Amino acid sequence: MLGLGLSIEPQLWTLLFTMVRVGAAFLAAPVFSAVSVPLNVRVLLTGAVAILSMNAAPIEPPAEIFGLTTILSVAAEALVGLALGFILQIAFAAPLVASEMIGVSMGLSFATAINPQTGQSTPALGQFLTILLTLLFLAVDGHLVLVDLVVRSYTLLPPGGAWLAPGKLMNIALFGGYAFLAGLLLALPVGFLLLCLNIVVGMLSRSAPALNLFAIGIPASLAMGVLALLVGMPAMGDYMLVIVREALDAAQMLVLG
C-alpha cells in the first residue's frame, strides 16, 4: 500500500520514478529533444532506458506517492537528468554562435530557416552546421554514450542522494561560456579570410573613393565566404568532433564526477 491507500504495483511505481531522470535527460539533450521526434517514441524510449537502469542498479523509490519526501526526490531526479542533457545542449549552441559571426561577415545574416531541433527560425548557415554536428554526434555513438551516462548515474548518484552540490551547479553554469569559445574557434578559419578581405576592401576604399564598395564588397564577401567554407570544412569538421567529445566528457565530469 502506497500513499493514500492506493494499491500500485511496486515495480510500476519504481519504473515511473526511474523514468523521471531518464525523461529529463532526453528532454534537455540534443537529438532526443528534437521537435521531429514523436512524443510516443520519446515515452517508449524513456521507458526502455528506465527498465535498463532498473536492472543495472538497485533503485528504491519513495515509500509514499504524495509526500514532501517524494516531491523532493522527484525534483532531485529531474535536476540530474536536466544537467546531463543541458551540458550537451550548450555544446550544440556553438554552431549557432559560429554562424552568426560568419553570416554577418558574409552578408547572410538575413537568410533564416526552421531548425528541426527546436522548431524555431535560425540562420540557414547555423542550421547547416547544426545538422553536420548532429550527424557527427550520431556517427561517434554520442547518443549511446549519453544513455550509458544516464544508466551509470544511478550507481554514482543513487536516488535519494542525487542533489547536485552548489559547486557542481556553478561549474555547469560556467560551462556555458564554452559555447562562445567553441563557436569562435569554429568560425576562425572563415572569419580570418573574411577579415583579410575586409582589409583589402578598406584599402581600396581609401585609394579609390569613387569606387562603389557596395557593388564590389558584398558579392566579394559572399564569394569569399563560400570558398572559405569549402576550404575550411575539413578543419571545421575535425573541431566539431572535438566539441562532441568535450561535451560528453564535461557531462560526465561536471555531473557524475
Automatic annotation (TrEMBL):
<dbReference type="GO" id="GO:0044780">
    <property type="term" value="P:bacterial-type flagellum assembly"/>
</dbReference>
<dbReference type="GO" id="GO:0006605">
    <property type="term" value="P:protein targeting"/>
</dbReference>
<keyword id="KW-1133">Transmembrane helix</keyword>
<keyword id="KW-0812">Transmembrane</keyword>
<dbReference type="GO" id="GO:0009425">
    <property type="term" value="C:bacterial-type flagellum basal body"/>
</dbReference>
<feature type="transmembrane region" description="Helical">
    <location>
        <begin position="65"/>
        <end position="88"/>
    </location>
</feature>
<dbReference type="InterPro" id="IPR002010">
    <property type="entry name" value="T3SS_IM_R"/>
</dbReference>
<feature type="transmembrane region" description="Helical">
    <location>
        <begin position="126"/>
        <end position="151"/>
    </location>
</feature>
<protein>
    <recommendedName>
        <fullName>Flagellar biosynthetic protein FliR</fullName>
    </recommendedName>
</protein>
<keyword id="KW-0969">Cilium</keyword>
<feature type="transmembrane region" description="Helical">
    <location>
        <begin position="95"/>
        <end position="114"/>
    </location>
</feature>
<keyword id="KW-0975">Bacterial flagellum</keyword>
<keyword id="KW-0282">Flagellum</keyword>
<keyword id="KW-0966">Cell projection</keyword>
<dbReference type="InterPro" id="IPR006303">
    <property type="entry name" value="FliR"/>
</dbReference>
<feature type="transmembrane region" description="Helical">
    <location>
        <begin position="210"/>
        <end position="231"/>
    </location>
</feature>
<dbReference type="Pfam" id="PF01311">
    <property type="entry name" value="Bac_export_1"/>
</dbReference>
<comment type="similarity">
    <text>Belongs to the FliR/MopE/SpaR family.</text>
</comment>
<dbReference type="GO" id="GO:0005886">
    <property type="term" value="C:plasma membrane"/>
</dbReference>
<keyword id="KW-1003">Cell membrane</keyword>
<feature type="transmembrane region" description="Helical">
    <location>
        <begin position="172"/>
        <end position="204"/>
    </location>
</feature>
<keyword id="KW-0472">Membrane</keyword>
<comment type="function">
    <text>Role in flagellar biosynthesis.</text>
</comment>
